[in-house]
Amino acid sequence: MALSFIGRIICARRNILITPCRSGYIVLLPEVPTDVPDDPLLKTQGIPEISSLSTEKCSSAVRKYALDFESAVWKIEDQLKENPTQNVFADVLDPLEKHGAPLDTTWGLVKTLYLTNKDLMPVRVYVNIHNKARQSRALKFSSEPIYTACKEASVNNDLTEEQKRVVGKYTLEGRLNGLGLDSARRLKLQQTLKQITQEKTKFKSKVEVATKNFQHKIEDHSIVRDFPEDVLRMMVSHSSQPNQGPWKVTLNTHVYSKFLEYCPDRDMRWNVWQAYTRRASKYADPNLENSTHLEELRYLRRYQASLLGFESFAAMSMETKMAGSVEKVKTMITSLLARGTLGLKHSTSDPGS
User: Fold this and answer.
1) Rounded to whole angstroms, how far apart are CA atoms 95 and 130?
2) Where are the coiled-coil regions (predicted)?
3) CATH number given to 54-180
4) Which of the four, 65, 166, 182, 209, has the lowest number of CB atoms within 10 Å?
């Protein structure tokens, strides 16, 4: 027994001794999309050939132009670090717009394709493309060299009114990204933005699960006899036979809205409407309630606004909105309320009076 114990110790030590030491590391490089010389998404003459498009072509085109744009931003940053610009439009902003045009064009066409043909552009594929394009386009607003160049150019009195607005846009977006903060506050802002993204993802995920959980089956043809054929196709298992049930009602927006519009049964409409409005609430599945995420988002957004020097998240949000300030929004609502009250009194008054 003692020999056996000693033998196990020797074997264990031998295993430790022969275990190789790995001190290296692996670097994962981003996938470089293939060139698309005949990209139908960038057709300049006439309408793009939608029939020649595919999910792979759309995804590859957007990823390629997103990578090209990111490379252009990094190149401009290197140039600014070596030699400060004397003409911010010729050296920075014009090249950014030129390199961003292909990405904007393909991204916009992919959006249109998603809204018009979800079979060719499924939701999950579009979300990945959209997030990649949005992340790449936002890179120019989170670049410190570009922000510094625009901030210095903003004091130039020789700029036209249009140029001042463009430079002001870059300066504002940079400030909202924390480029005007010290390192400690910028780190706190980055952590806060990361937490906001996580809470938003959890919120959206629960809404999606709650949406998928609800189904209502209709077997009575008299309920759906006045439904348009395209709506029935979305509600049956086999779209080639829209008049053969059962018909399934879901909370997906394209089905839900049409069902409320055409369903003649009031109780059935009420049931579906109630299920839609109570998604991810405490009145439905407690495991999917979103109230805690909402409160966390409110707290994080208030903290984000305070780090950037704003009184509230609403005040910060208005910086990039047409209204411009919370006070103007409140004034508009007050004016609408006054007019709406007069209209309500008129519509509810006795016609014979």
Assistant:
1) 23
2) none
3) 1.20.1050
4) 182
